[in-house]
Specification:
The protein has 9 helices and 18 strands. It is 35% helix and 26% strand. Strand 10 and strand 11 form a beta hairpin. The structure holds adenosine monophosphate and magnesium ion. Magnesium ion binds next to strand 12 and helix 8.
């Protein structure tokens, strides 16, 4: 009898210690840093410190490499910089297979969204000076330029005028005056690449990563509870309007008018531009959240759906098999059917 009780006691301790560190439920190892002009936060469940450190060192090196060698519009070392500098040239610009594939996927998304998603609007982003707008801290001065100027620069855009070629090598040709901006997909793409590293680090059992508010969940928590991803309340950005409870591997991408903007005389000029008008999109939407398996797609779709609004946006999300949550200007929430399963509203 004594022996039986002892065995039960040991079993209990084993169950309690499953996922525990020194008898306690294992806490995540948390890291914060900056890269790609944004905040990176990583919470990692890993029994040993070394495994988690290896991962964060590798993931931060990856993000810096992506920025410096591929995605930055500003750094001369990046492929994107070289592409933009080659606009109008006969020979175009040679690019890596990786970027070629990313640009192909962007073109498909532009087609599917009927031009709402448009990476060729680099000059429009430049004109509105979006990169200079601080996140969450509005400037007070409206950029000084005329409607004619906006329309002139808008007419430089158009994904169908960008040509991708794969012969012995991969090339892109941009017409004179056009430039690319990958701000709408870079963070989601980075998360996809970070997930590959997570899969390689066998010691890591679970993680939740955020690249500028785009979130990746991976594996499971030691206590078996679900991942909680808070969704910002666009009407009160210091609080969440609700929470997604997720199991396993997901990407959560949000595009909102509160992220970067200038506000002048009650009018908000934000960073999500409608290629049809050249102005910040006015679709009655404050934010769109996409829940997807693929980070790049989710990131692109949150931007596209913001511009399209709830009806067309919901249809686009459905064609990609992703879930969507729209928060409208009148405070209404519109959720896809699949999203409802994960969603719970915060108590106000
Ligand atoms: P996100 O925060 O993912 O919605 O991306 C917004 C960023 O994408 C902006 O800061 C611009 O750099 C870029 N962008 C703005 N409008 C568009 C658009 N219609 N299509 C693609 N990229 C855009
Ligand atoms: Mg996006």
């Amino acid at each position: 009898m004594k022996r039986l009780l002892y065995t039960i006691w040991i079993c209990c301790i084993m169950v309690l210690c499953c996922g525990c560190d020194n008898g306690q439920i294992q806490a995540p190892r948390r890291y914060m840093d900056t890269a790609m002009g944004t905040v990176i936060s990583q919470s990692i469940y890993c029994p040993g410190e070394e495994g988690a450190r290896n991962f964060t060192n590798r993931s931060m090196a990856l993000l810096r490499e992506l920025e410096q060698e591929m995605l930055s519009r500003r750094l001369e070392t990046s492929e994107l910089f070289r592409i933009n500098a080659s606009a109008g040239s006969q020979e175009g610009c040679q690019i890596s297979l990786e970027l070629f594939r990313l640009l192909q996927e962007c073109t498909e998304l532009s087609q599917a969204s009927e031009g709402a998603f448009e990476i060729t609007l680099g000059e429009l982003v430049e004109l509105w000076n979006i990169d200079q707008w601080a996140v969450g801290e509005p400037e007070q001065e409206k950029p000084a330029f005329s409607q004619e100027e906006i329309l002139r620069v808008r007419d430089l855009c158009g994904y169908y005028r960008m040509k991708l070629e794969s012969k012995e090598e991969y090339r892109i040709f941009l017409p004179e005056g056009m430039s690319l901006d990958l701000g709408a997909v870079g963070k989601g793409y980075a998360l996809d690449r970070m997930r590959t590293i997570l899969e390689e680090e066998e010691e890591i059992t679970g993680a939740i990563l955020s690249v500028g508010g785009n979130v990746l969940t991976y594996g499971r928590k030691p206590d078996g509870s679900s991942w909680k991803v808070g969704i910002v309340n666009p009407f009160e950005i210091s609080s969440n309007i609700g929470v997604l409870s997720l199991e396993g591997q997901w990407c959560v991408s949000t595009s909102g008018d509160y992220e970067r903007y200038v506000e002048v005389e009650g009018v908000r000029y934000h960073h999500i531009l409608d290629p049809a008008t050249g102005y910040p999109a006015r679709s009655g939407v404050r934010s769109v959240t996409i829940l997807s398996e693929n980070g790049m797609q989710g990131d692109a779709l949150s931007t596209a759906c913001f511009i399209l609004g709830p009806e067309k946006g919901m249809a686009l999300a459905a064609t990609y098999g992703v879930q969507a949550l729209f928060i409208l200007e009148d405070g209404q929430l519109v959720l896809s059917e699949g999203m409802e399963r994960y969603w719970s509203e915060s108590e106000q």
